[in-house]
Design brief:
Elements: E1 2-3, H1 6-12, E2 22-26, H2 33-43, E3 47-52, H3 60-63, E4 67-70, H4 78-89, E5 94-99, E6 102-105, H5 114-123, E7 128-135, E8 137-138, E9 153-156, E10 161-166, E11 172-180, H6 183-186, E12 199-205, E13 236-240, H7 242-249, E14 265-267, H8 272-277
Parallel strand pairs: 1-4, 2-3, 2-5, 3-4, 7-13
Antiparallel strand pairs: 5-12, 6-13, 7-12, 8-9, 9-14, 10-11
Length: 287
């Protein structure tokens, strides 16, 4: 179903918010939008909302199974503004957001869907899921100049680290860390400092007054924690071509980068087990 804008969707399409979890996909360009949609439909989301420009063309079988919302991602704070409007409209629902050419993985996703994971997470009295954004990149930039190839996708198998997240007085916040690694770390000279983190709270339960900030954290500090005080919780991963695409499309960096591969690159096999083995997500108490 097509909606001319977010306000129109919130007025006429609210039936899509009757049941969660709901996935919101934000198309910054036209790359791999269809595969992003299909991946999240297969993951078990009850509804998929696509925020995209009109020039995007999709197969008929996808246009009939999603809610497509005309949206301009080029304006400042486009994503948090849309997510916050959805939070206001979907109180109590589990929501998820990502960009195009990004793919969510959770522990055991080959046999258990995202709804099952969120049911378990809810039983643990958690309202948010920490997500690591793991950079993917094509192996051959001559063959794939936009750095995107699902069939030849690689990722870094090491080089990830975390630092304490300071509060206003410089003291570390409880159960919060800033995570770094991947292309944003290896090519940090091309990445603004405030965009180098690789953590998001991409899965969360909407409630009144909750707000997503531009740095992918929420105004409720408990939402930003990696676990409860008693034990580790489930975490998830989004494998993402977004940084690789940006580095190769930006005139300030594209000519400096001839390959993203290095001695710690490994081919991505599109399995949750590989991400678990690399420590890029964990099952917590869920087995």
């Amino acid at each position: 179903m097509y909606h001319t804008g977010l306000k129109e969707f919130l007025r006429d399409g609210k039936s899509a918010l009757a049941k969660g979890p709901v996935a919101m996909i934000f198309a910054e360009d036209l790359v791999e939008v269809d595969t992003t949609i299909r991946h999240h439909q297969l993951a078990g989301f009850a509804q998929v909302l696509l925020f995209a420009p009109d020039e995007l063309s999709l197969p008929v079988d996808l246009t009939d199974t999603i809610h497509r919302i005309r949206y301009d991602m080029s304006r400042e704070n486009a994503l948090p503004d849309a997510v916050n409007a959805m939070i206001e409209a979907a109180e109590g629902l589990w929501l998820y957001y990502c960009y195009n050419a990004e793919y969510l993985f959770h522990p055991f996703c080959e046999t258990r869907n995202v709804s099952e994971m969120l049911t378990f997470h809810t039983e643990e009295r958690r309202d948010a899921v920490l997500t690591y954004v793991v950079d993917l990149y094509a192996d051959d930039l001559d063959r794939y100049p936009d750095a995107v190839s699902l069939e030849n996708a690689w990722l870094d198998k090491s080089g990830y680290y975390a630092l304490g997240r300071p509060d206003e007085k410089g003291h570390p916040k409880e159960r919060q860390l800033d995570f770094f690694g991947g292309l944003r770390w290896r090519f940090e000279e091309h990445i603004p400092k405030h965009r180098r983190k690789i953590d998001r709270i991409s899965l969360f339960r909407a409630r009144k007054g909750l707000r997503l900030r531009p740095d992918h954290t929420f105004n409720d500090e408990e939402y930003n924690t990696y676990s409860c005080p008693w034990h580790h919780n489930v975490t998830t991963a989004i494998v993402s071509f977004r940084t690789a695409k940006a580095l190769k499309s930006n005139a300030g960096s594209t000519f400096d980068i001839h390959t993203f591969k290095w001695h710690n690159s490994t081919e991505f096999d599109w399995s949750s087990q590989q991400l678990l083995d690399l420590g890029l997500m964990e099952p917590g108490q869920w087995f």
